What we know:
Elements: E1 10-14, E2 17-18, E3 22-35, E4 47-61, H1 70-74, E5 81-90, E6 93-109, E7 117-133
Antiparallel strand pairs: 1-2, 1-5, 3-4, 4-7, 5-6, 6-7
Amino acid sequence: MATxxxxxxxxxxxxxxxxxxxxxxxxxxxTSEIDVSSKDSARWKEILPGQRDWxxxxxxxxxxxxxLGMKEIYAKEGTKVNVRVKVKTTPTTTDYWHGSAYLTSxxxxxxxxxxxxxxxxxxxxxxxxxxxAT
Length: 134
């Protein structure tokens, strides 16, 4: 039987520093489509795989005394950063997803009677690599 992984063990690092107070991190990977439909396609769309892309979305609680929080991440806007997502897959094994990215958006949410959070999106440039450490 497969063993589920607790999401708490997943941490985002930007330029080697863990993003503080993280609550959610997502890695997305995709491939664009090249439309090669023709009159011979009998009205069905036909595609070929195109360029690959990736990105990271991250949500954290705003803590103004955090080592790497919203203000520090916003200051990196427009600058290429090194990102790494650490995923503890077993008690003795860790996967590291890493590559270079640009901060493409940051948003702060302040709901009434709730915690202040921010969400940032990082868009990858170049290859995303996964290495495993034991």
